[in-house]
Design a protein that fits this description.
This protein has 385 residues and is of the alpha/beta class. The protein has 14 helices and 12 strands. It has 2 domains: 239 residues, Alpha-Beta Complex (inorganic pyrophosphatase (n-terminal core)); 118 residues, Diaminopimelate Epimerase, Chain A, domain 1. The two termini are 31 Å apart. Bound molecules: manganese (II) ion.
Length: 385
């Protein structure tokens, strides 16, 4: 009897979450339409180190701009763009025939009046290729699923679905999920199924193939993408497959795991890594019984990259990464800014970093962050309504 009641509650919560998320997204449509139609030029951007979620979201927002009869520019970091992996450059090839890809120099030489910037899958100023050019836009729109903080681009036009309350409702798995619901609102007739496959890819990336960070709205979105829109799950899995050498390297990092109580898996590697490799190690470690996984390794410049993942969002890893080095993210996925550790030996470096991570976990080190708490209060207010 009691069990049935709990189940009933859960069912109504599930229905409610999906419905309310879609309602919130549909309410943003007017702002988006108005600002796009009212601008002379639309620029799109996302975070540096573009991942599948970022590229898929660019594709989708581009389609919405086209539906509103605008041809947008995508602003990228030229170096990064020249060195994209094969998979990502293939994705870009697809979206490029509808949009124009430009770099920061081009943007600076071709600025126009009444321009609009739409940033997807990102909200921090320092994370896009735009450096300090935000003042050049008349309007800025942010569509994202990461926490806000004092580095968030200043604008009143934002759709950030990342509810941090105890029973989160206004929350999504990925930017791709938000973009799918928006495309649906706009009734965009997408002839090329690849756009839907890319969105599914973005969702699978950010949920580690539905293993974490999924919500009722996410499941609904995935099923619509596959069953109604024909997104190709096999193709998506191919994109997500890893090569043997990378996987071994990721596993060597996982082998460095040390445990801090039974809640935290922490691993600091000895090789040079990419962001993605460290993120993969952290994602992998979540399969063990733990609340959070924090992994680190050096990048090509000798600074430590630190990535954190959490299993059920019980550990505020966004807070941990902020305290560690002004990073951020959301309740399931976060990262610190690259950290330089000063020590005489490699072993000492790793020990120092381990201690710093331990200190933020035990609250021995923390940075003041006003906006963070203000945001929490606002969220609670929304819940009461
Ligand atoms: Mn994302």
């Amino acid at each position: 009897m009691e069990k049935e009641l709990v189940q009933g509650e859960k069912q109504s919560f599930n229905k409610k979450q999906s419905m309310l998320v879609r309602k919130k997204i549909s309410e943003f449509k007017d702002t988006l339409t108005h600002l796009i139609e009212d601008s002379n030029q639309v620029y799109l951007t996302t975070h540096k180190n573009m991942d599948y979620d970022a590229i898929a979201s660019l594709g989708a927002i581009g389609l919405i701009c086209r539906k509103l009869k605008k041809s947008p520019y995508i602003v990228v970091d030229q170096d990064e763009y020249n060195n994209l992996s094969y998979d990502k450059s293939q994705m870009f090839k697809k979206i490029e025939d509808k949009f124009v890809v430009v770099n920061l120099d081009w943007f600076n030489n071709n600025k126009t009046e009444k321009s609009l910037l739409i940033a997807v899958d990102v909200n921090k100023q320092f994370m896009t290729p735009l450096k300090n050019n935000y003042g050049d836009f008349d309007n800025i729109i942010i569509i994202d699923h990461h926490d806000e903080d004092s580095d968030t681009i200043k604008t009143k036009n934002k759709l950030i679905l990342n509810d941090k309350s105890e029973k989160p409702i206004y929350i999504t798995s990925s930017c791709s999920e938000i973009m799918y619901w928006l495309l649906k609102q706009y009734k965009v007739n997408v002839k090329d199924i690849d756009y839907y496959s890319f969105l599914l890819l973005g969702i699978y990336l950010d949920t580690n193939k539905k293993r974490k960070n999924t919500f009722p709205s996410t499941h609904e979105c995935i099923s619509e993408l596959i069953d109604k829109k024909g997104a190709d799950e096999n193709k998506v899995n191919e994109y997500l497959s890893v090569d043997f050498e990378t996987d071994r390297k990721v596993q060597r990092l996982v082998d460095e795991t040390k445990w801090l109580t039974i809640r935290y898996a922490i691993g600091i590697g000895n090789e040079v890594y990419t962001d993605e490799e460290i993120a993969k190690a952290a994602d992998y470690a979540l399969k063990y019984t733990c609340e959070a996984a924090i992994y680190a390794g050096k990048d090509a410049t000798g600074k430590y990259l630190v990535k954190a993942r959490s299993n059920r969002g019980n550990v505020d890893i966004g807070r941990l990464m902020f305290d560690l080095n002004k990073g951020g993210g959301n309740r399931s996925s976060a990262a610190a800014r690259p950290i330089y550790i000063d020590a005489s030996t490699k072993e000492e470096e790793r020990e120092k970093l381990f201690k710093e991570i331990k200190d933020v976990i035990y609250y021995k080190k923390h940075n003041p962050r006003k906006r963070y708490y203000i945001k929490r209060k606002n969220n609670n207010k929304e819940d009461d309504e």
